[in-house]
Amino acid sequence: MTQQVRGVIARSVGKPVELVTINVPDPGPGEAVVGIQACGVCHTDLHYREGGINDEFPFLLGHEAAGIVESVGDGVTEVAPGDFVILNWRAVCGQCRACTRGRPQYCFNTHNAKQKMTLEDGTELSAALGIGAFADKTLVAAGQCTKVDARAPATVAGLLGCGVMAGIGAAINTGAVGRGDSIAVIGCGGVGMAAIAGARLAGAAKIIAVDVDDRKLAAAREFGATELVNSTATDAVEAIQAATGGFGADVVVDAVGRPETYRQAFYGRGLAGTVVLVGVPTPEMRIELPLLDVFGRGGSLKSSWYGDCLPSRDFPMLIDLYLQGRLPLDKFVSETIGITDIEPAFEKMRHGDVLRSVVVF
Question: Where does the Enoyl reductase (ER) domain lie (predicted)?
Answer without folding.
Answer: 14-359
